[in-house]
Amino acid sequence: MSGGGRHRRRIRIAVPVAAAGLAAVVAGALLMSSANAAPGSALPTPSTRPTNSTPSQAVLEERAAGALAGDDIAGRVTRKTSLSAATTPVHVDPKIIGGSTTTISTAPWMAQLWYSDTKGTASTADDLGFFCGGSVVSPTKILTAAHCTVDENGKPYDWQAHGVVLTGTSQLLSSDADDNIDLHGGTLSAPLRQWTHPSYNPDKIDNDIAVITLANPVTAKPINMTSSGDTASYKSGTNATLYGWGRTSSASQNISQALKTAVLPINSDTTCANAYGSWFIKGHMVCAGKPATGSDTGTVSACNGDSGGPLVVTDAAGVSRIVGVVSWGVEDCVTKGAYSVFSKVSTYVGAAYPRVEDTNLSGDHKADLFLRRASDGTGYEADSKGTSFSARLNLGSSQFKDLNLVLQSDLNRDGYQDYVIRQTATGDVYWLHWMWSTREWANDKIFSDWKTRTRIVAPGDLTGDGLPDILSVDSAGKMWEYPGAGNGTFPTRVYVGMGWNQYNSVRGHGDFTGDGKADLIVRSSTGSYIYLYKGTGKTGAGAFSTRVKVRTWPDYNAFDAVGDVTGDGKADFLARTAGGTLYLYPGTGKATSEIFATRISVGTDFKQFDIFG
Prior knowledge:
By secondary structure, this protein is mostly beta strands.
């Protein structure tokens, strides 16, 4: 893009450099309890954000100032290119040249990622400071590029200790002569943790996708990633929109103080491979834009500063989704015949989705387990250690004694797991969620008189709108879908289908098949057959594909699905024997009889529990 200002200090932007060669039986789900009282709220403070763990505004501004003064490029790789006659190594960077200025209202999901690390020394010689773009994909989740979270040697940057994220403004973070930071009306947030695609290759800039989790939810409107089955968005000639604050000219280091946008047509894999040879990896990458002209004139391209930002396609219904993440391109962006290269989001949504849905009780990337002891109604939290669980934490009995259902969810997508609970006597269903503004648990009634509902499930996002939903089965076996509004309300229920009372367990939380869509695991009352109902991302009668028989499990009397227990990005399953042994079945991501890996015993004393979360 042309125009734009320049920081008081020279700043290089985080960009990768790649070479471009031209060339439950229901016992575990809905067991009854005899007492009745209003749901309690005396739960512990969520450990996802320990009381003193969030940096102060002053610390965040100090990080921002350090990053603003930086002169570094994250994840930089140097390779030779045949796009020009050069025989010496040529850096390959992404930025935006061409296009026009826009406002944050047109792309409210845009985020600025600033990183500053003094390395703990008094000298400034080893200071590291850089910038990346990103997209808000849920209130606490930022989608970005892996080269923004891992350096060129594969070593992770520590975003929790050294990073800051700015949202809610179209103006780039800036400072005055006295180093006073101007947020331009935006909000600084502290990163809590980060996930980088486990197969990221910093040399080839392959699998270049990452998710940063924030310590607090932001108010910026999220944008969803595209689905795994999306092919229409990648058809050659489809117009996609790029957003960013990157360099605006190949001839200088000037970057744009205002958010800019450009329209780039999607290119075929053949076109991209012809341009970049083996550096372009089909299925993992997509390139867009018309071939660069060799100068700024006539070139519309990503450039330094856009790295990690989104490439967006809006469908005929007006729904916008991220189809690409800015990954790499040629140095100075305008070498004749060059294209901008993006990570292909449809390929990676299955891996990224669990990280967007990874709210849990302990605050790491692994799903934890809620349990209720039958004898006295005491609730327990068992935190995942990957393939086992830590010693159980006593959550008290008063708030769980009079319930017959407890489900773990995050209905408002604030990044802190909450509970969906049902009163035994009234059948009323409540949403128990932590309010950081008051530092108390709020208890909102979301459904009334659901005593006759035989199954209630909190599977996550069924509809593809990025918001968690609820399913219930009534006494007639009809399943109803309640699309969530993201605030604990469910405006209109949708009929899914009949026959669901043939199953004595209906469980689901997350994606079992690796396609980025929530699924269900059920067991038949007759034959004890285990079936997979694969989510389609649609609503109503088309919400699930035809069931697939995956196992026969007659020896279990309780089941649970809490998400990704192992932390590998695939939803897992739990099953208990009549003798009380609880087994973890790690998910494989396969929608076949191989959907689970070999079971792992995680304890033998689980007979005492009558509710699993």
